[in-house]
Every structure is written in structure tokens, then in C-alpha cells.
From TrEMBL:
The protein's name in its UniProt record: F-box domain-containing protein
CDD domains: F-box_AtFBL13-like
Source organism of the structure: Lolium multiflorum (Italian ryegrass)
Biased composition (Gly residues): 8-19
Domain F-box: from-to ranges: 26-62
InterPro entries to which the protein is assigned, alphabetical: F-box-like_dom_sf, F-box_AtFBL13-like, F-box_dom, F-box_dom-containing, LRR_dom_sf, LRR_FXL15/At3g58940/PEG3-like
Pfam families: F-box, LRR_At5g56370
Record-annotated F-box/LRR-repeat protein 15/At3g58940/PEG3-like LRR domain positions: 124-305
Annotated segments matching region Disordered: 1-21
Domain of life assignment: Eukaryota
Length: 308
């Protein structure tokens, strides 16, 4: 097993057992190669490379950022995540922020409830605007389940990352009159999101490279209509009966595929509960229609569904 000895200057020294070899070959690599290595490490391990030696300390700050706060109970606090975003000067490659708690702007004592900013979460807006997002490949923003229908994502989320390829948004509300600029987005997941049909259609219309769409237990509109020339795969799960507790908000129980010429897979997910309705009007390349059960109340196939 090799042993590292740190010096005050360059890289640490690796001692091979019995070999007397004191050369640290890794630290002698060019900065851009070391930065690539660090950007592929989990967030904690990437940050810990700063402790190796002074040679490594500036590498992490300039390397493409890979920030994953985690949702398994071992993740970073929001304060730590904010500190990382402030200290890191390099471009961002991957940002995953989950189980966030929104900050109320006021409190309604008569109704005994917190009031949140209708302009969206200012922290998220500030974090993203302070970064170089031109190289961001993957983004996940999700709030804790208790705040599913109170927190509005800031509109800047949808237009500051032109290279984004994978996006997941959860337990939040999508802003109305959405302006989207995601020309390279390929995978999109919306789970426990409050949205309107108009917002949903505007989102898809400005994702010309979208290939995979996952919709899980969303609310805000009884029906979502879908048109996309590039979409190849759809996963759909309507809210379960026992999860409904907001009579004033419609559950997304109906999905209408109006025009999807490239679609080849449509997968109803865990269709044991609920009363989902799926209408497929134009999907000439559809080959796979996932398992159906009594959870799918109605399935309507149009004349242009020819592959099944």
C-alpha cells in the first residue's frame, strides 16, 4: 500500500512499499487533467483533494463543479452548499440540490401559514446567476415534500444553462408565462410539480432535442397535452388516490399525446392505483406500451398508432 508524505511545496510524495519510489505521478499531471479528475469525483471527495498539498488547493476551485447535496440523509446543509457555490470559481458541470426548504418572506397569523415570494426562490436565482452555467450538463432542483405546492422556481432556471442535457424538478411550482431556452436538453423529469397545461406546452416547445420525459404525480391541471417532434420515451404516473388532499388543485390524471412522430415507448408507471387516462392521437412509431391495469381507466389509441 502506498503512503503519501506531504511537503510544503508541490505534490505529495507516494512511497511504494520496498521500492523507495518517492514520485507523485498524479500531482505532476497538467492542471486541466487534474481538474477533469476532480470534477468526476463525488462532491466530498473532490473538496478533500485540497488537503493533499498546496499544489492541489487551487485545482478544485477552478475545476468543473460537481455539486450533489444528496437526499439520503448524509447530504450537505443548505449553508454548506451555499458556501461551496460561493467559494468555487470554476464552471459548473453538475448541480443537484434536493430536499430544499424555502425561506418564507412573511407570515399570515390569521391563517397560520407562511407566505412565500411569488417571484420565486431568490436563493436559487442568486446561486445560479453567480455561476458560469455555460457548461452545465445536469441540474436537479427539488424541495422537501412539505413544500410541494408553495415554492415557485425562479424563471432564470430555464434560460441560464444553454448546454443543459439532463434536468429534474420536484416538489415545486413552475412559473407562469415561462420563457425557456434549453436547446440541448435530452432528459426531463417533473415529479410532484404544480403546473398548468400552458406552461407544460411552452416548456416542451422550447426543448427541441428532448428525447425522454418522465411525469410523476404532478398537479395543477387535469389534463396535459403533449406535442414534440423529438420525444422518444414517456413515463407517466398520475397521483394516487390516498395522496390527494387538496381539493382545490386538479391532479394530472390525463395525458394526451397529440403529435409525437418519434415516440416509440410510453410507460404507465406503477399503474396499480389512481384513474389515469391516456390518449394517443398521433404516434406512428410507437412500439412499446407499458403494462396496463385497472389503474388506467381509459386508453384511447388514434388511427396513426400503427406499431403496436
Amino acid at each position: 500500500m502506498a503512503t503519501r508524505i506531504d511537503g510544503d511545496g508541490g505534490g505529495g510524495e507516494l512511497l511504494g512499499p520496498g521500492s523507495g519510489d518517492r514520485t507523485d505521478f498524479i500531482s505532476n499531471l497538467p492542471d486541466d487533467v487534474l481538474g477533469t479528475i476532480i470534477s468526476l469525483l463525488p462532491t466530498r471527495e473532490g473538496g478533500r483533494t485540497q488537503a493533499l498539498s498546496r499544489r492541489w488547493r487551487p485545482i478544485w476551485r477552478a475545476a468543473p463543479l460537481n455539486l450533489d447535496v444528496g437526499d439520503d440523509g448524509r447530504g450537505f446543509s443548505e449553508k454548506v452548499a451555499s458556501s461551496i457555490l460561493s467559494a468555487h470559481a470554476g464552471p459548473a458541470r453538475r448541480i443537484l440540490l434536493t430536499k430544499l426548504c424555502p425561506l418564507p418572506t412573511n407570515y399570515d397569523y390569521a391563517k397560520r401559514r407562511a407566505i412565500y415570494d411569488d417571484a420565486g426562490d431568490g436563493r436559487i436565482d442568486g446561486w445560479l446567476r453567480s455561476r458560469d452555467l455555460s457548461s452545465l450538463q445536469e441540474l436537479e432542483l427539488a424541495y422537501s415534500y412539505d413544500h410541494c405546492r408553495t415554492t415557485l422556481l425562479p424563471p432564470s432556471v430555464f434560460r441560464l444553462a444553454p448546454a443543459l442535457r439532463v434536468a429534474r424538478f420536484g416538489c415545486c411550482r413552475l412559473p407562469p408565462n415561462l420563457a425557456v431556452d434549453l436547446p440541448h436538453l435530452q432528459q426531463l423529469t417533473l415529479y410532484r410539480v404544480t403546473l398548468t397545461d400552458e406552461t407544460f406546452r411552452a416548456l416542451l416547445a422550447n426543448c427541441p432535442a428532448l428525447e425522454s420525459l418522465l411525469l410523476e404525480m404532478n398537479v395543477g391541471a387535469a389534463r396535459l397535452r403533449l406535442s414534440s417532434p423529438s420525444l422518444r420515451s414517456i413515463g407517466f404516473l398520475s397521483p394516487w388516490n390516498e395522496q390527494r388532499g387538496h381539493d382545490d388543485i386538479d391532479d394530472v390524471n390525463e395525458l394526451v399525446v397529440e403529435d409525437a412522430p418519434s415516440l416509440d415507448r410510453l410507460l404507465p408507471l406503477i399503474p396499480r392505483r389512481g384513474s389515469a387516462i391516456i390518449r394517443i392521437i398521433n404516434a406512428p412509431k410507437l412500439q412499446i406500451l407499458g403494462s396496463l391495469s385497472y389503474g388506467i381507466a381509459n386508453l384511447h389509441l388514434g388511427a396513426t398508432v400503427s406499431g403496436l
